[in-house]
Design goal:
The protein is of the alpha+beta class. It is built from 13 helices and 16 strands. The protein has helices at 16-22, 28-39, 56-71, 116-132, 158-163, 169-174, 183-189, 216-220, 258-274, 312-331, 352-364, 379-383, 410-428; strands spanning 75-78, 84-88, 98-103, 140-145, 205-211, 224-230, 232-241, 245-246, 281-283, 287-290, 296-297, 300-309, 336-345, 348-349, 369-374, 389-394. Strands 1, 2, 3, 4, 5, 6, 14, 15 and 16 form a 9-stranded mixed sheet that branches. Strands 7, 9, 10, 12 and 13 form a 5-stranded antiparallel sheet that branches. A hairpin with a 5-residue loop joins strand 1 (75-78) and strand 2 (84-88). It binds zinc ion (ZN). Residues 103, 114-115, 148, 210 line the site of zinc ion.
């Protein structure tokens, strides 16, 4: 699959058609209006959006998106997990497509931009090409992945996970929501059980524009994040066992205080992540204390540990340091420590040529940009395993997302869509 792009470096070309697209810009106002119109479906009083996957509101959002796609002459299909593909023909129409998009489902108290920006920026790219009468060599497919958020039905990134073979279709369809409805039933109820054979199976490239969902671009003052990959993660559940005993009658030297050991673990997780900057992350996010009583020495603590890094070897080193820290605690206390791995995803390294196309798009637009590694999961992380992929980040205010207060400026939205436009043109190739 990686060879699909090897002879397609269109930045080397000097055809007149290529020059005519260099000054091409998206219509930022049209894109903004489109984003605001989609956000009305499931819009919340606080200016956010509640359009969870496979609900009636998701159906309405899908219908609107499809109406927009069909107005541009795109051929719309959906697959067995309800991923929507909308195709714009290429001059070499049998060639593998360049695929651009993201997701339109939201969190219950979500914003207007997470996911929707990527899908509607893809639509804006196609509208711009249509308005300019510009043909590409490869076909372009807009994609809207099913259930990226994973809030009504776990896991998150369900549609792209099924597409990439990371999640079995039957497993995904059998997942239930809080009312016991399966994802399969919900998908059928909104009328989006499609046919895989009508959809693309191979991508020549995949590009996803997204809000950063973090504070880095705002902090550095850059408009565009050229996303080179995503952090890998390793999660653990840790149980520290001591002895619950009376806090008055048990002398200090005869205690087995599980909380004392747990606090050393919290401190070690932080220290290990701090020593592997800038990409190291270490978090104890869940913490349960037993029996949690004022006059009882804690007998047991159960906590979660989340380590992340952009490089596999460093992630392994962090875990080895973590295990050494645990051995040390066990060695100089009377505590027992039990560790269970609960998740393990390797770092994603995006495709050099897709990354270069994004960087070139940022340079062409004159946008301040920097390389960045995604700390969050995205559909592109799964798709990057089966096709050349990269992402484009734009800043979001204070790094806030999964929140009704989520905000990105019209200027940054326009900039991100322009970078998507030029990166897509460079990968898809401009026709003669
Ligand atoms: Zn998203």
């Amino acid at each position: 699959m990686t060879s699909a792009l090897s002879n397609q470096d269109s930045s080397q070309r000097t055809s007149p058609a290529r020059h005519s697209t260099q000054s091409l810009d998206v219509d930022g106002e049209r894109l903004w209006q489109t984003l605001m119109e989609l956000a009305e479906i499931g819009g919340t009083p606080r200016g956010g959006c509640n359009r969870q996957a496979l609900t009636e509101l998701d159906r309405q959002g899908r219908e609107l998106l499809i109406r927009w796609c069909e107005a541009e002459g795109l051929e719309v299909r959906f697959d067995a997990i309800g991923n929507i593909f909308a195709r714009r023909a290429g001059r070499e129409d049998s060639a593998d497509p360049i695929v651009i998009g993201s997701h339109i489902d939201t969190q219950p108290t979500g914003g207007k931009y997470d996911g929707c920006f990527g899908v509607l920026a893809a639509l804006e790219v196609i509208r711009t090409l249509n308005a300019g009468g510009i043909e590409t060599e490869r076909p372009i497919e807009l994609v809207s992945w099913t259930n990226e958020e994973g809030c009504r039905f776990a896991p998150c990134m369900m549609g792209s996970g099924v597409f990439a073979g990371q999640v079995a279709l039957e497993d995904a369809l059998s997942r239930t929501d809080a009312d016991g409805v399966t994802a399969g039933e919900a998908l059928k109820a909104i009328g989006y059980v499609g046919d895989n054979t009508a959809c693309p199976t191979r991508f020549a490239g995949y590009l996803e524009a997204h809000i950063e969902q973090g504070p880095i671009l705002e902090d550095t003052g850059d408009t565009i994040g050229v996303v080179t990959g995503a952090l890998g993660l390793k999660w653990f559940d840790v149980t520290i066992t001591g002895m619950a005993a009376h806090s008055g009658s048990t002398p200090m030297h005869l205690r087995q205080d599980a909380l004392l050991g747990a606090t050393r673990i919290v401190e070690a997780v932080n220290r290990i992540a701090q020593s592997h900057q800038p990409d190291g992350r270490g978090t104890v996010g869940a913490f349960q204390l037993l029996p949690n009583s004022r006059n009882v020495i804690p007998g047991q603590v159960i906590l979660s540990v989340d380590f992340r890094h952009s490089e596999s070897e460093v992630l392994e080193t962090m875990v080895a340091e973590f295990r050494r820290a645990l051995d040390e605690i066990v060695g100089d206390s009377a505590l027992g420590i039990d560790v269970t791995p609960t998740a393990d995803y390797p770092p994603q390294h995006f495709h050099p040529e897709c990354i270069a196309a994004v960087r070139q798009g940022a340079l062409a637009g004159g946008y301040a940009h920097r390389d960045i590694v995604s700390g969050a999961g995205h559909d592109a992380v799964f798709i990057g395993d089966i096709a050349p992929a990269a992402m484009i980040f734009i800043p979001c205010e204070k790094g806030i997302s999964h929140n009704e207060a989520e905000y990105a400026t019209p200027e940054d939205i326009t900039a991100g869509a322009n970078v998507l436009l030029h990166a897509t043109l460079s990968l898809a190739g401009v026709g003669e």
